[in-house]
Fold this sequence. Notes:
The chain is mainly alpha-helical. The protein has helices spanning 2-26, 34-39, 45-54, 61-73, 87-122, 127-141, 144-158, 174-208, 211-218, 223-251, 255-261, 266-275, 279-307. It starts with a helix and ends in a 7-residue tail after the last helix. 31% of the residues are buried.
Amino acid sequence: xxxxxxxxxxxxxxxxxxxxxxxxxxxxxxxxxxxxxxxxxxxxxxxxxxxxxxxxxxxxxxxxxxxxxxxxxxxxxxxxxxxxxxxxxxxxxxxxxxxxxxxxxxxxxxxxxxxxxxxxxxxxxxxxxxxxxxxxxxxxxxxxxxxxxxxxxxxxxxxxxxxxxxxxxxxxxxxxxxxxxxxxxxxxxxxxxxxxxxxxxxxxxxxxxxxxxxxxxxxxxxxxxxxxxxxxxxxxxxxxxxxxxxxxxxxxxxxxxxxxxxxxxxxxxxxxxxxxxxxxxxxxxxxxxxxxxxxxxxxxxxxxxxxxxxxxxx
Length: 314
């Protein structure tokens, strides 16, 4: 187990380094000159040249990268070219919002998707299976922005149960905070619940056909014990991998959902940064997101060992 975890940890640094190179190179393909965007209506060539010099845009690309990487290694993500705020402060402001929204969406997805997948597998080719598959297909097919708008019209406008948009931090008013995030969390969790349901069903069907399940039944174990302790425990291994990837997707920022519900998270931050050619913000958000992806995969590796004791000697 230690060898496996050590290998995964050792892969973090080259992975993040490769991501930094790709982000730095791909942003150069974006049309437009950041110096002209920052200058705004002031199109004086001298002013634009000064901006380019200040931001190191007049240096060769490798020199720009080495300069940026040197600051990054010292924990400095730079400053926003648009509003001159430190990128780290912007990340610290937006990350808790996205973490809260993603955590709530993921809990909703797991609570709905995994039990539905188990029931669909155990009750295969019955009405329960057909209903679960129909709901899963609907969840995958429904656009998140449309579902968000419909929920606002029904829950907020017609019934008046929840606020239609906005965000209140947990530290300020946790009740109001949950009220403003439960609908966008459900919108995000709905699609992931459908994915988890289909994968859980597939993994459970495979597990229920294995010899160890037949042996457990032959020993006279209760069906609930066979399903939960034997079949589900092994079926969860591929589901854990999928869950880690889907949670990473949530953390990267659900742009459309955040726009519909006016949630000031990572999605809105990076969209605004791309439109404004604010490269340091784009780089900072992408690197933080990449780190979270790697960290979640590391957590998934640990969960493999917890779920499957046979891996503990690896």
